[in-house]
Amino acid sequence: MNSVPPISIIGISGSTRRGSFNSALLRAAASSMPQGGELRIESIASIPLYNGDEEAARGIPEAVARLKDAIAEADGLLLVSPEYNNSFPGVAKNGIDWLSRPPADIARVFSGKPVAIAGASPGGFGTLLSQNAWLPVFKTLGAELWSGGRLLVSRAGSVFDANGEIQDPRVRENVRSFVAGFVAYVSARKRPVDARIAGEQRGLPPARR
Ligand code: FNR
C-alpha cells in the first residue's frame, strides 16, 4: 500500500467564459495528471473587482480567502490564461491581485510555490505574450516559476470540439507531458530525498538526479 500523499495542484482558468478554451485546456490537464498527482480546479468567477476602499471596509472577500487557503495548502499552482491585447486578461490579473492581499499574507500563499503557466488562443501564437506577461507578476510574489515545459495551444478553434474535448492527439500528448513535467518538478522539490533515491535506483549520476 502506498501511503505517500499525492502531489496536489490547484488549477485556475484565467477565463470565466462558458465555452472558454482555457478552461477546457485546464480540464484536459486535470484528466491527464500522472499517477501520484491530482489537480483540483478552482475558479476566479466570484471574485469581485479589487477596490481598496472595499478591502478597508470589509476585508478579504470569502471567495478570495478560500482560494488563498487552497493555494497555500497545495503543492503547486497551474494557471491557464488567455491572452488579451498581447498580455494577460484584466479579469485574471484582478483575481491574482486579490490573492496577494494583504501583503503580509503573500509569503503564506505564494512564497516558493511552484507555478506553471499555460494557455490557449484561437490565434497562431498560443498565448505566448500572455505567458511572458505573467512572469514578473509571479516573480514579484516570490513564487517558483516552472520553466521546464511550455504549453501554448494555438488555433484553439480547431483543437477543441464543441464539448471542449481536445481533438488533436498531438495536443493531448503535449498536455500530458506538460503536466507530467510539472508534477515531477513539484514532487522533486517536495521530496528531494525520494527523488535522490529514485535517481539512484535508475542508476543516474548525482548531477542528473
Ligand atoms: C482577445 N484575443 C486575443 N488572442 C490572442 O491570441 N492575442 C491577443 O492579444 C488577443 N487579444 C484579445 C483581446 C480581447 C479584449 C479579447 C476579448 C480577446 C482572443 C482570445 O484569445 C479569445 O477570445 C479566447 O477565446 C479567449 O480565451 P477563452 O475565453 O476562450 O479561454
Summary of the model, kept short:
By secondary structure, the chain is of the alpha/beta class. The protein has 9 helices and 6 strands; from the N terminus they run E-H-E-H-H-E-H-H-E-H-E-E-H-H-H. The protein has a single domain (about 5-209), classed as Rossmann fold (3-Layer(aba) Sandwich), CATH 3.40.50.
Distance between the amino and carboxyl termini: 25 Å
Oligomerization state: single chain
Q: What is the CATH superfamily classification?
A: Flavodoxin domain
User: What is the mean predicted local confidence, pLDDT?
Assistant: 94
From the helix content, strand content and strand pairing, which structural class follows?
alpha/beta
Top CATH class? Alpha Beta
Largest beta sheet, briefly?
Answer: 6 strands, parallel
The unique ligands bound to this protein are: ligand FNR
Which band does the percent of strand residues land in? 5-15%
Q: Determine the number of helices (DSSP H or I, runs of at least 4 residues).
A: 9
The H/E string reads EHEHHEHHEHEEHHH
What does this structure look like?
The protein is an alpha/beta fold and 209 residues long. The protein has one domain (7-208): Flavodoxin domain (Rossmann fold, 3-Layer(aba) Sandwich), CATH 3.40.50.360. It has nine helices and six strands. The protein has helices spanning 21-31, 52-58, 62-73, 90-99, 106-110, 128-140, 156-159, 169-190, 192-201; strands at 7-13, 37-42, 76-80, 114-120, 144-145, 152-153. Strands 1, 2, 3, 4, 5 and 6 form a six-stranded parallel sheet that branches. β4, α6 (128-140) and β5 form a beta-alpha-beta unit. α1 (21-31) crosses α8 and α8 (169-190) crosses α9. The chain is globular and about 55 Å long. Bound molecules: ligand FNR. The site of ligand FNR has 14 residues, from α1.
